[in-house]
Each structure stands twice: as C-alpha cells, then as structure tokens.
C-alpha cells in the first residue's frame, strides 16, 4: 500500500491508537455498497437459472381421452325420457364424425332397473344413429352392477383426442418448511387444466390452420366505400374508447 493511501486510511493518535480519518468513510461506503451489489447479483443469477415454469411442470399434451356420461334410468321407466334425450344429444356434440370412433353403450346387469335400462339403451342407440353416427360404430355391451338393489345408470362413452394435462392436487412438500425461492408443485395446474378444457380443436396447439379463401367481392365493396366516403368524421373526432 502506498504512503498516500496509508495516510488517508489511518492516523495515529498521541496514545498510539490508530483512528480512522473522516475522509476514509466515503471510500469504505462505496466499497461496502459494491460488495453488497456483487452478492445480490450473484443470488439473482443463481435463482434465475433454476427452471421454475408452470408450463414445464404442468405441460398441456394432446392425447386420447375417454369421454363418458352416465344416464340414470329408473326401474319403472319404459323407454327414453325427454331429459335423457337432450342430455345425450349434448354429449354427442363432442363426437367427431370424421374420426368416427366406437360409441359404447353399456347396459347394467343384475340391477333393479336392468329391464328398463335395456330398453333405454336401445333408444339411445337410435338417437345416436339419427345424430349422424354410423350404426356399425355403435357397440352395445353390459357391465355388472355393484349393488343389485340399486338402479345403475347406462354408460355412454367414446374415445376422442383432447388437450389435457396432469391432475392437480400434488403437495409433496410443506409450503412453510422450505426456503427455496421457487413455485410450489401445484402452482399453475388449475390454470393449465382450464386452458386445455377450453381448446375446441387440439390441433390448434400444434400449428395454424389453413387460411380461408379471400372474399374478393366483399373486399371490393369495402374499398369502394372507403374511396367514396373516406374516413368517417365521427371516427376522427372521437377515436377514444370509453368504458
């Protein structure tokens, strides 16, 4: 250390004790601030380098998913009801007639409503055919009722390609017993599930669709209208959006 720096940093008193001169305080403050900035920058780089993205932990994937609905049938029913018909038609709106997967209608066996369920199941098949599903794609099957004294539902199902993600509700660690500056395991899961459920065509997640043809007649009419009238004065005078 040079003599001039030594004179700035310390001064010896008469008793022999070294005392810091006032001129050294600003220099030490700057050095201390630089040291803290270096530590903060190091921590931010370390935390930022950890992969912590809900799109990575809960990715949306396109896969086959079993679409099913249980239609309750009373033991005293003698055929399909109006409510059952409306519910079934709403369920069949998600059936892709182009892919034409097998539509399974499962009738309960050994239940209190076995006879009524068989009659209703046949009506369900006729409704499906009327909705545009090919007859050779409808499979009539049965399943054993778990409770013979109860009325089991008729199960209608088909397999479709859907956008989906993993199930929510994973809590492997206690949120209060961690010092990691990271998202918890279930973070973003419900958002990803809701987003996947709203996707009508899963192929939109893979790539864009082909553009439709241009309506040349409508385009020409719009251009002619613009040339004739120009920009509306109302638009020019009031271009702000009010809420």
User: What best-fitting shape do the alpha-carbon axes yield?
Assistant: flat
Rg:
36 Å
With helices defined by DSSP (H or I, 4 residues minimum), what is the helix count?
8
Counting DSSP E segments of at least 2 residues, the number of strands comes to 6
- Distance, first to last CA: 69 Å
SS content category: alpha+beta
Percent helix, as a range, is 25-40%
Give the averaged pLDDT, no decimals.
Answer: 80
User: Biggest sheet, strands in spatial order?
Assistant: 3-6-4-5
Query: CATH topology of the domain at 65-159, which one?
Result: 60s Ribosomal Protein L30, Chain: A
Q: What are the segments in which pLDDT stays under 50 over at least 5 consecutive residues? A: 1-11, 40-49
Classify the beta-strand content into a percent band: 15-25%
CATH homologous group name of the domain at 65-159: OmpA-like domain
What string, H for helix and E for strand, traces the elements in order? HEEHHEHEHEEHHH
The CATH architecture name of the domain at 65-159 reads 2-Layer Sandwich
Quickly name the level 1 CATH class of the domain at 65-159: Alpha Beta
Largest beta-sheet details: 4 strands, mixed
Blueprint (SSEs and pairs):
Blueprint: H1 3-9, E1 10-12, E2 18-20, H2 25-48, H3 54-57, E3 61-71, H4 82-92, E4 103-109, H5 114-130, E5 138-144, E6 154-164, H6 189-198, H7 216-229, H8 233-237
Parallel strand pairs: 4-5
Antiparallel strand pairs: 1-2, 3-6, 4-6
């Amino acid at each position: 250390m040079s003599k001039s720096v030594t004179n700035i940093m310390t001064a010896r008193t008469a008793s022999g004790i070294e005392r810091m001169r006032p001129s050294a305080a600003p220099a030490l403050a700057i050095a201390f601030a630089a040291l803290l900035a270096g530590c903060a920058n190091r921590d931010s780089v370390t935390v930022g380098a950890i992969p912590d993205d809900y799109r990575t932990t809960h990715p949306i994937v396109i896969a086959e998913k079993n679409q099913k609905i249980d239609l309750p049938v009373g033991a005293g029913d003698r055929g399909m009801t109006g409510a059952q018909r409306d519910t079934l038609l709403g369920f069949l709106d998600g059936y892709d007639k182009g892919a034409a997967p097998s539509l399974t209608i499962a009738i309960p066996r050994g239940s209190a409503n076995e006879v009524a369920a068989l009659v209703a199941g046949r009506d369900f098949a006729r409704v499906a055919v009327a909705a545009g599903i090919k007859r050779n794609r409808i499979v009539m099957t049965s399943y054993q009722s778990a409770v013979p004294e109860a009325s089991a539902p008729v199960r209608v199902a088909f397999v479709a390609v859907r956008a989906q993600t993993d199930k929510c509700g994973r809590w492997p660690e206690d949120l209060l017993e961690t010092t990691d500056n990271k998202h918890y395991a279930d973070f973003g899961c419900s958002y990803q599930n809701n987003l996947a459920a709203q996707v009508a065509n899963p192929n939109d997640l893979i790539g864009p669709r082909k553009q439709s043809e241009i309506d040349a007649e409508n385009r020409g009419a719009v251009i002619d209208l613009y040339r004739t009238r120009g920009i509306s004065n109302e638009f020019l005078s009031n271009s702000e959006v009010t809420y």
